[in-house]
Automatic annotation (TrEMBL):
Residues 44-143 form the HD domain. Gene3D superfamilies: 3.10.20.30, 3.30.70.260, Beta Polymerase, domain 2, Hypothetical protein af1432. This is GTP diphosphokinase. Belongs to the relA/spoT family. Residues 638-712 form the ACT domain. Pathway: Purine metabolism; ppGpp biosynthesis; ppGpp from GTP: step 1/2. InterPro entries: ACT-like_dom_sf (IPR045865), ACT_dom (IPR002912), Beta-grasp_dom_sf (IPR012675), HD/PDEase_dom (IPR003607), HD_domain (IPR006674), NT_sf (IPR043519), RelA/Spo_fam (IPR004811), RelA/SpoT_AH_RIS (IPR045600). GO terms for cellular component: plasma membrane. It comes from Halarsenatibacter silvermanii. The keyword Transferase applies.
Length: 713
């Protein structure tokens, strides 16, 4: 890099510049770095000159460019800040010293060191925003020449750039630097994906250019008809932003439709809106895809109109409309406003644009301890993301609002599944705690633990959401299969259907295919999900496996001593016939009941309102049944309890049952996200009146909202 090239660039935006300090800084650097070489083999002075040229591309002031040439001199030579102040002035010395502090920044496991790294960056910005502009230019030049470093160093620098410097460039509105920093980092962090996307983008570049040119031609024609002059061109999407969209939306490269957008530059804000109207006349806008960043600028000063329309050939087309001034701000951000400040105008406007930064930097006046500084670092510097540390000091980048559960799934799927608690900066925090910049996160796990459905209410990352949903889907699937298999086997036994074990798999496989299910497991799953009814399956079992008895034989062959489950039931016109209480509705004395003659199982007694009764075939198989009085008889009853979840709730409810000397068969309990508990109990009762008495006593338990009889299954 020759000094003359930097001088030529400066002359494109400063009339008759005084280049004396630039030349003096060059001479001092050349002498100070004499004999020093970069890993690439080129003289070290090439690096500060490269940084200075980037500063000139940003059209920054001469003081900034002189400081850029000197930015490494305190750290790498014998020169001190005082020497720089004596040779030049205090302003340049402070800029150089500020950048020197930033270049010592690194990430280590101790919280004090992490805090100090962030403090140095923010304090440098508080003294002079140009310190960060020099640092960003320094980092960009280093990333451009990163190929000469060893792989370990490449990854370290690329990660630091992607997680610290690219977001900072974004926050300062410097999209041109942000995009290049992101793409360079992407190249070293995920080289295979980087080069694969590069090849794919290059492969259809000509086709894409042709499509964009058709769109540009149509826009130009329409604008000329309306006497609007505009600069129109295509804007290709950067590789890292393509990769981000593929990851976030979980789509392939071929599904990314906005690889190139059309950008329209016009002279005034009024014309921006006129162009928008004209474009919407040419093509239909896509609903929900219009954004007015002119009326509502982004926090990083970005202004533009964005719209997505159904463009040529019916493909989506993104169009951005802005003025040249807006475009310059979009490309260079805070650097674009520096010249207005230097010129003495717009001082108040410049300070307004940095209000978010000023608020952040107020902390350093009162917070002396690194730990205090870290605790206070709560302002969202990186607009859409948060970076936190593992206990080993690795930096993890997560979406804004991310929680310890997001962090756990980022580390490993099993860490997420087994997560039971979390610590932030050494203190226990809830799993729904929103992580903040600089937090040191530790995940507590247990091999016996599993995901909670409540997690889906607060996790932010698509990775965590998909892993949790997949786990529950697998659990539901397994449970449905087991339930479906159990229900079918019970039905086959109840209907006295005998299929030899050697033939069962084949029979069920044929039924599964007939019901458009891929295999017996899928058949069980369909039954478990209530997508296939048991009756559908039973109907398709060949008659060879079913008993064919007429009603007279059915009744006479099954007369036996009444089982205990049928005590208290009288069957009209019959004695000594097997009677059983239906488990689907579990009637008790006081319920209206109906009898149904089954194959091989005697008379099944159901509640008259049981939905299964409507499904039963053969009117001649229904028989009249009545309750007979017997104080010693007892019956199973299922009750549903809704309550506000609280500590010892279950103990209080079971205590009531125990005090009444009622036999408890089973308890099932669950809660929802609104802290409401749902409890199902199976108890042994003597009558409907007995049931009502128990329900009343349970309703009197503190926190219980309602008690009802379980609906027949």
């Amino acid at each position: 890099m020759k000094l003359s090239k930097i001088e030529e660039k400066i002359k494109t935006y400063i009339d008759d510049p005084d280049l004396s300090w630039i030349r003096k800084a060059h001479e001092l650097s050349r002498e100070a770095y004499r004999g020093q070489y970069r890993i690439s083999g080129e003289p070290f002075v090439e690096h500060p000159l490269g940084v200075a040229y980037i500063m000139a591309e940003l059209e920054l002031d001469l003081t900034s460019i002189a400081a850029a040439i000197l930015h490494d001199i305190i750290e790498d030579t014998e020169f001190s800040r005082e020497d720089i102040a004596e040779e030049f002035n205090q302003e340049i010395a402070l800029l150089v010293d500020g950048v020197t502090k930033l270049t010592r920044m690194d990430f280590k496991s101790r919280e004090e060191q992490q805090a100090e790294s962030l403090r140095k960056m923010f304090l440098a910005m508080s003294d002079d925003i140009r310190v960060v502009l020099i640092k960003l230019a320094d980092r960009l030049h280093n990333m451009r020449t990163l190929g000469y470093m060893r792989e370990e160093k490449q990854i370290e620098k690329a990660r630091e750039t992607l997680e610290i410097y690219a977001p900072l460039a974004h926050r300062l509105g410097m999209s041109r630097l942000k995009w290049e920093l992101e793409d360079l980092s992407f190249r070293y962090l995920k080289p295979e994906m980087y080069y694969e996307l590069s090849r794919k983008v290059a492969a259809n570049r000509d086709e894409r250019k042709k499509y964009i040119q058709q769109a540009i031609d149509q826009i130009e024609k329409a604008l000329k008809e309306n006497d609007i002059e505009a600069d129109i061109y295509g804007r290709p999407k950067h590789l890292y932003s393509i990769y981000q969209k593929m990851e976030e939306k979980e789509i392939s490269f071929e599904e990314v439709y906005d690889l190139t957008a059309v950008r329209v530059l016009v002279d005034s804000v009024r014309e921006c809106y006129e162009v928008l109207g004209i474009i919407h006349e040419i093509w239909n806008p896509m609903p929900g895809r219009f954004k007015d960043y002119i009326a509502m600028p982004k926090s990083n000063m970005y202004q533009s109109l964005h719209t997505t329309v159904i463009g040529p050939h019916g493909d989506p087309l993104e169009v951005q409309i802005r003025t040249p001034e807006m475009h310059r701000t979009a490309e260079y951000g805070i650097a674009a406003h520096w010249r207005y400040k230097e010129g003495g105008s717009g001082e108040e406007d410049f300070e307004d644009k940095l209000s978010w930064l000023r608020q952040l930097l107020e902390w350093q006046k009162d917070l002396q301890e690194p730990h205090e500084f870290m605790e206070a670092l709560k302002v969202d510097l990186f607009e859409d993301e948060v970076f936190v540390f593992t206990p080993k000091g690795d930096v993890i980048n997560l979406p804004r609002g991310a929680t310890p559960v997001d962090f756990a799934y980022y580390i490993h799927t099993e860490v997420g599944h087994n997560c039971v608690g979390a610590k932030s900066n050494g203190k226990m925090v809830p799993l729904e705690y929103e992580l903040e910049n600089g937090d040191i996160v530790e995940i507590l796990t247990s091999s016996d633990s599993s995901p909670s459905r409540d997690w889906l209410e607060f996790v932010q990352s698509s990775r965590a959401k998909s892993k949790i949903k997949r786990w529950f889907k697998r659990q539901r699937k397994d449970k449905a299969k087991a339930q479906g298999k159990k229900s079918l086997n019970q039905a086959i036994e109840r209907e006295n259907i005998e299929i030899p074990s050697s033939e069962r798999e084949g029979v069920l496989k044929e039924i599964a295919e007939d019901l458009n299910r891929k295999g017996v497991e899928a058949l069980f799953e369909g039954i478990g999900y209530d997508q296939i009814s048991i009756r559908q399956v039973l109907k398709k079992i060949p008659d060879d496996y079913k008993e064919s008895e007429d009603l007279e034989e059915l009744i006479s062959d099954k007369k036996k001593d009444k089982r205990s489950s049928g005590r208290g039931i009288q069957v009209k016109g019959m004695d000594d016939i097997l009677v059983r209480i239906a488990k689907c509705c579990k009637p008790v004395p006081g319920d209206r009941i109906v009898g149904y003659i089954t194959r091989g199982r005697g008379v099944s007694v159901h509640r008259a309102d049981c939905p299964n009764v409507k499904e039963m075939k053969g009117e001649d198989r229904f028989i009249e049944v009545n309750w007979s009085s017997s104080e010693s008889d007892s019956y199973e009853v299922e009750l549903m309890i809704e309550a506000v979840n609280k500590q010892a709730l279950l103990n209080e409810i079971t205590g009531v049952i125990s005090n009444e000397k009622i036999e408890l068969h089973s308890v099932m309990a669950d809660t929802d996200k609104y802290n409401q508990a749902y409890i199902k109990i199976d108890v042994e009762l003597s009558s409907k009146e007995h049931m009502k008495e128990l329900m009343t006593k349970i309703e009197n338990v503190s926190g219980v909202l309602s008690v009802s009889r379980a609906r027949p299954s």
